[in-house]
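Entry for the shared binder. Reason: the reviewer on the internal report wants the predicted structure included alongside the sequence.
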Amino acid sequence: MERCQVAIIGGGLVGASLALALQQGARERGWRILLIEPFAPGSAWQPSYDARSSALSYGTRQIYERLGLWPAIAERAEAILDIHVSDRGRFAAARLDAASEGVPALGHVVENAWLGHCLWRALDPEVVEWRCPAEVVRLDALVDGYRLQLDDGSLLECDLAVLADGGRSGLREQLGIEVRSTPYQQTALIANVTPGEAHAGRAFERFTDEGPMALLPLADNRCALVWTRPGADAERLATLAPQAFLDELQQAFGYRLGAFTQVGARYLYPLTLVEACEQVRAHLVVLGNAAHSLHPIAGQGYNLSLRDALCLAETLLAGPQRPGDLLSLQRYLERQRLDQELTVGFSDRVTRLFSNARPLLAAGRNLGLLGLDLLPPAKRWFARQAMGLGTRPH
């Protein structure tokens, strides 16, 4: 029976980042890592106007710097130099800027395809072996690990199985791991748009009675739009002719970046906060969106998953020669528990506060934005949360 030390089920951004974080230590320990992924990574970078993207916090940049990957990522990373937070129809606004926080950028926006391309190129095939295209159809617990059955009928065993197969993980369900689901009764419309003026590294968080929107700077003077609306209205917006869509977007956002000139493909994602009730068992870890799927408006989901992956790698490499013992995995989860609780809570509270049209709450958040802009300690706390530094010592 073929056996490896770590089998990572899901070779997307989180799974590949975990493999990279483990790579050097695995080489020294003689570990073999398998990345099992249904969709083959692209062999060449193909730029696309419609590429989906992720907001990487400053803390995430620091992680990729430690892993030696940041110079490659930075070739297509657009810096967020300041963030403008406002509430439509009300006077208060808050502004965060990199210079005031003493950092080169509050974060960066990177196309997922480019980030994946950089990760896959950095993996050493002598340590990290791809099984691709391949899918795990069954997981069975053993005394000393897990047995994996692949869709081609082949079997393999591992000391540690890492479930990083996304928010709709069928294996998570198969293993009887329950989830807490909290629907937001909202749908995110995701698209890339081109403004009439240069974005100059500015990001915007705009809150409306129908739901929040974010506009993030991308390379080539594009902006990544996340527009949260009630489901039926999001579907209506997705089917509008391009100019009609831009007209509605302009009305909701205003002219801070001039007149929008282009919109690409529009994608819809119904939004639910999902948290796995178990993240570790003996010889098993649930990671990434399979562990927690957050609302995208606060831009925290991927950054939290990357911090989880780094902490898991550090804990495994400080543990026994054979990874997967329950004590080590519980130690990992205990180290990350506060970060997860604070980040999920921050994301959820921001979403609910700024998606509510009740006059009292609207007035309260207006005062909150005003206070945020006037009170340096409050602004610094908010900025550290946004930068992914909220659970680190100052």
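Summary line for the report: The longest strand covers residues 179-194.
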